[in-house]
Write a structure and sequence with these properties.
The complex is a heterotrimer. Chain A is mostly helical. Chain A contains twelve helices and no strands. The longest helix of chain A is centred in the last third of the chain and has 38 residues. Classes of the chains: A mainly alpha, B alpha/beta, C mainly alpha.
């Protein structure tokens, strides 16, 4: 009876990162939503990278003479009201989207994880204070913070990045604290404490590595949320400013021409949806693949 | 009439879909139970005893495939549509589960939960059901039943909650009570009280009972007949005193030796059965116990051994009963 | 009153104060002299000083903050820097649109989400479950304003059934108003409903695995009865938590959606005020939105105690 118990306890104690890499990839390639999510996300990333070296036309040059062209061999998806090539705009727009998303999630992740780890390690009033503060921040959705910042500092990429970044923090605080608390309750942490290790060392050596996979999953999903927020802010004119192309801005431009060229409103939205869907599927897939607890239940 | 079995199970088989693929969780289980008789199912966890109980209740997951026959008063239960089964459950067959802490709905009052089967099966009014629920809770020894009828499960201790689930199971005066490890989750001091309560209620109402336990002591004290299960099969069955007098199967003997004993000399090592319970998804071809058996030989692994009668209505599924019973007699 | 209730009320008040402080700092203290901003850099210093005094901006920060708080308590939010009319009136005019819009979309969200979530959980791993869950996966990925544009394309441009924007008001009865809020409410709701449906489904599935579900089945209850009588109430707790959190997103969403449909609601007011540099209006609107979010989450907390007997008793 005792033999299988110790065996399972041993596997549970192994950090998810320690899983054999080949096994991970073999399982990953068979995971449908992971594969689909990875393909979609990578194609958006590919578009952004491609736009750095090549676009079919310039994304900023205005050519009123050839405005609102239907799709053709020269302009695969046609041109907008200023005669700019839609494909080029979409490619460069991917770049703004990813840039804002990465920085905003980076802000949320670094602040959120630090605060969450401190809350879990310190307990008591420190934890209470951090949690109250993050609850409080939840009352300010990104759009609301962005409005406040735009009213004061003017609209722009910095405004949207800051607003989205701040809104990301409380989610990371909660997730980090929740999963870190679970690790703190485990026996190997107790053993480390008994061995005289301080809470900082335990956090770095035991807690962080064990919640890393959860954080990766959460960051993927938060990235998707950041893209949605960025699109909404640029659509409202609070985010990325022209002439820098962005998908949200393109939608705003297209809305005034709904009756003339309805398709202009379809492409950028589809691009946003593909990026978000890809990241969400990727996150779901990663959760299944990285979380050994869930994986064993399957 | 009274000699006709109340429950008759013939060649029951259950195939489950587990994470490791399809598994034959129960095979070839047969027994008959007359009105007022008590039967014990004993074995380690994963041996198929709970699956057998759930098959009787018709509560296996939808993906489970049940073969063989289960008859209640002659009526076939295998393949019965769920709507018809619902009329039997809680009415003619009831079940008490292992975990009293989670077996009750935290959102409903205990009065409501005890009255629920009455309302479902007898069609009496809410007020009458409430009165009946108080009487039932009084009978199972819940203190201040009338006053606490509107309390919620979290306000009771584990032992009290198990009394409440017993009241619930008995509400409609069932013919058969299945008790699946009813005391395993409770404090040792409470265990005896709950078992005594169940025994007296079974006696008083003339119910048949199937008691499931991993504890040979519980089985020895509470049932007329017993079946020892291992790897989804019944390896030994017979009258309780007959089985305890002459344990025929090496596994039964192993279980007996592995039980902790009060007053054992200090330093005495608890004997364990070597090896582990086989995964149901990959059972060995022959005798399921072969890998852990001390007297295994090549024949044992060829095919599942037939049941050998070693006494009046005492059967053992072992081809080496000659050796095992001689050895078992001396060591026990 | 119970300790539970008291604690929550104190938290609510403290949160509102903190919110007001931050909003005041960002939208009043930080930008510097609003009079200068209103009049532009070229204005004469005398004119700016006159306006500063007129707007009451010459008083110290703490006094201005306390005056604002005091004003909020009695419903006097000051006058718009631009129009000179009371801010409370401006906001009230817009709320007759924004509040019905928020309520309508919340209702649509809850109905869609519960129906889809319960249906999929009851048909776990069957074709319907997989189909609806794939739909919700797509729904979560849609930006709500893009979905709104697609709805306009379909219903206004192609089918010409509903107008592409504008608000009919409540003067001609309730239906024209509701009709003009229908597309905005749906476009807000569908995305939220997709999220809430997934939460509902997993909450129901989780409860379905509980022991007491088996107990209920053992009593002779059918699957449907167990679902309605035993499972749903238990599953509602995580669903309500998410609903409370979604309300914040919903209000933020109304700001965006009002701009898609050119609806004269709170969101449009905020935007016009930002463009006009009418910071006192922005400040009060943001405070109102934050207060609504905080209050709704407070109500959700209260509802827990109403639904879950364990909370009430352990905290009395």
């Amino acid at each position: 009876m005792s033999a299988p118990l110790t065996a399972s306890a041993a596997t549970a104690a192994i950090a998810p990162g320690a899983m054999p890499a080949t096994g991970f990839w073999r399982r990953a390639l068979r995971h449908r939503s992971f594969v689909l999510g990875a393909v979609l996300s990578l194609s958006v990333l590919g578009a952004a990278l491609l736009s750095l070296v090549w676009t079919p036309w310039s994304a900023t040059d205005i050519d009123i003479a050839s405005k609102l062209r239907p799709p053709s061999a020269a302009h695969w998806l046609g041109t907008d009201v200023l005669g700019r090539d839609i494909v080029s705009l979409l490619l460069v727009g991917a770049r703004s989207t990813i840039l804002v998303g990465v920085i905003a999630v980076g802000i949320g992740l670094s602040f959120g994880v630090c605060l969450g780890l401190v809350a879990a390690a310190r307990k008591g009033w420190t934890e209470e204070l951090i949690m109250r503060m993050s609850d409080f921040t939840f009352a300010f959705p990104a759009v609301l913070s962005a409005i406040m910042l735009a009213a004061v500092a003017g609209p722009g990429m910095v405004t949207s990045i800051t607003a989205i970044g701040i809104f990301q923090i409380p989610t990371f605080v909660r997730v980090t604290r929740g999963s870190a608390n679970a690790i703190w309750a485990r026996e190997f942490v107790l053993a480390a404490r008994a061995a005289g290790k301080g809470s900082f060392r335990i956090t770095i050596e035991h807690v962080l590595p064990n919640i890393l996979s959860i954080l990766i999953v959460q960051a993927t999903i938060q990235f998707a949320l950041a893209i949605l927020a960025e699109a909404a802010l640029s659509y409202l004119g609070l985010g990325t400013q022209p002439p820098q192309p962005s998908w949200g801005r393109m939608l705003n431009d297209a809305q005034t021409l709904l009756f003339q060229s309805p398709m202009l409103a379809v492409y950028p939205g589809a691009a946003i949806a593909i990026a978000v869907l890809g990241l969400n599927l990727l996150g779901d897939g990663l959760r299944d693949l990285l979380d050994p607890r869930l994986a064993r239940e399957r | 009439m009274s000699d006709a079995p109340l429950i008759e199970v013939k060649d029951l088989g259950v195939r489950l879909n587990t994470s490791r693929g399809p598994a034959q969780a129960v095979r070839g289980v047969s027994f008959a139970l007359r009105r007022g008789e008590t039967l014990g199912l004993v074995g380690e966890s994963g041996c198929g005893k709970s699956v057998t109980a759930l098959a009787l209740m018709g509560l296996l997951p939808e993906s489970a495939v049940v073969s063989g026959s289960i008859r209640l008063d002659g009526a076939e239960l295998v393949g019965l549509p769920d709507a018809a089964y619902c009329k039997l459950r809680g009415n003619r067959i009831s079940m008490i589960f292992q975990e009293p802490m989670t077996a009750l709905n935290p959102m409903h009052t205990i009065g409501h939960q005890v009255a629920e089967p009455l309302r479902r099966h007898t069609g009496i009014s809410a007020a009458e059901a409430q009165q009946e629920a108080i009487a039932l809770l009084d009978r199972v020894g819940l203190p201040d039943a009338a006053k606490r009828i509107d309390a919620y499960p979290h306000q009771f201790s584990g032992g009290q909650r198990q009394r409440i689930t017993i009241a619930m199971a008995l509400a409609c005066q069932p013919d058969v009570l299945i008790a699946d490890e009813p005391t395993t989750a409770l404090d040792v001091t409470i265990q005896g009280q709950i078992l005594d309560l169940i025994a007296s209620l079974v006696e008083e109402r003339g119910m048949s009972m199937i008691l499931i336990s991993h504890d040979l002591g519980v089985i020895a004290e509470n049932v007329d007949r017993m079946m020892v299960m291992y790897g989804g099969t019944v390896v030994e069955s017979g009258a309780t005193d007959a089985v305890f007098r002459r344990m025929g199967h090496p596994y039964t003997q192993g279980l007996f030796r592995a039980r902790p004993r009060l007053g054992a000399r200090k330093g005495t090592r608890l004997k364990t059965i070597a090896g582990t319970v086989p995964e149901l998804a990959d059972l060995p071809a022959g005798c399921t116990f072969a890998d852990r058996c001390a007297i295994v030989e090549a024949r044992c692994r060829a095919a599942l051994p037939a049941v050998v009668d070693v006494g009046a209505a005492h059967g053992v599924r072992c081809i080496r009963t000659d050796v095992s019973m001689a050895a078992g007699g001396s060591s026990a | 009153m119970s300790v539970f209730f008291l604690r929550r009320v104190l938290t609510l008040v403290a949160t509102l104060f903190a919110a007001s402080l931050i909003i005041f700092l960002v939208l009043d203290a930080l930008p510097g002299n609003a009079a200068q901003m209103l009049m532009g850099a070229d204005a004469s210093p005398d004119a700016v000083r006159a306006l500063t005094v007129k707007l009451g901006l010459d008083q110290p920060l703490t006094v201005r903050y306390l005056l604002w708080i005091e004003g909020m308590a009695v419903g006097d939010l000051g006058n718009s820097y631009v129009y000179g009319t009371p801010v409370a009136g401006l906001i009230a005019e817009r709320l007759v649109l924004t509040i019905p819009l928020a309520i309508m979309s919340m209702l649509i969200t809850v109905v869609l989400a519960l129906a889809a979530g319960i249906y999929t959980a009851a048909n776990h791993n069957k074709l319907g479950d997989v189909g609806v869950m794939s739909l919700t996966q797509v729904g979560i990925a849609l930006p709500n304003f893009w979905f709104a544009i697609l709805l306009i394309l379909l219903f206004s441009v192609k089918l010409q059934l509903l107008s592409a924007g504008g608000f009919a008001g409540w003067d001609d009865g309730i239906w024209p108003g509701i009709r003009s809020l229908l597309l905005p409410a749906i476009s807000l709701a569908v995305v939220q409903a997709a999220i809430l449906a997934r939460v509902t489904r997993s909450a129901v599935l989780e409860v379905l695995r509980e022991d007491f579900v088996r107990t209920a089945r053992a009593k002779g209850l059918g699957k449907r009865e167990v679902l309605w009588r035993h499972v749903l109430r238990n599953a509602m707790i995580p669903v309500m938590t998410v609903m409370g959190l979604q309300f914040a997103n919903l209000l933020a969403g109304t700001i965006v959606i009002e701009n898609v449909f050119y609806l004269p609601g709170l969101g449009r007011l905020i935007f016009q005020s930002i463009a006009n540099r009418d910071l006192i209006v922005v400040r009060n609107c943001v405070m109102l939105l934050a207060a609504m979010v905080v209050t709704v989450n407070f109500v959700v907390d209260m509802l827990y105690a109403f639904i879950d007997p364990r909370i009430k008793v352990s905290n009395l």
